[in-house]
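Input (structure):
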């Protein structure tokens, strides 16, 4: 099964979900991530995932258009912006939403890297729990 994790910028939540799915669910899913308005992979997301044992440093931020017309079985939006602006997918694709806090927004008031990472770690772990529950949590 092919799964796409979609977020606004493909910078952290969707990158983490792709990393976890590749790491934990490779036998069940071929995982991808994309953004509605892609930017770059967040260095704090890379660091938090590295601490969790998953290297996402080679992943790149991309749009769904960059994925070459792959037909997905599932598209999971991970933020409200992506859910509201989700591109069209063929009728056979199941689209689901599972929102997570935005790590940069949660970490905005922090003045140290360690303080910022605390928020990324929490969201990383929440995303891991979600990915581990796939595909049952998709209905």
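Output (sequence):
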């Amino acid at each position: 099964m092919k799964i796409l994790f979609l977020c606004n910028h493909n910078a952290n939540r969707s990158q983490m979900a792709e990393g976890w799915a590749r790491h934990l669910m490779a036998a069940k899913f071929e995982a991808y991530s994309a953004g509605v308005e892609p930017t770059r992979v967040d260095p704090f997301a890379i660091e938090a995932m590295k601490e969790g044992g998953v290297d996402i440093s080679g992943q790149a931020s991309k749009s769904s258009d960059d994925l070459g017309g792959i037909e997905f079985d599932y598209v999971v939006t991970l933020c409200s912006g992506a859910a509201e602006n989700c591109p069209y997918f063929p009728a056979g694709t199941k689209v689901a939403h599972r929102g997570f806090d935005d790590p940069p927004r949660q970490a905005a008031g922090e003045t140290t890297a360690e303080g910022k990472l605390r928020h990324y770690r929490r969201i990383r772990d929440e995303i891991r729990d979600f990915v581990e529950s796939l595909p049952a949590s998709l209905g």
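Notes: Residues 2-133 form a domain with the Rossmann fold fold (CATH 3.40.50.2300). The mean pLDDT is 93.
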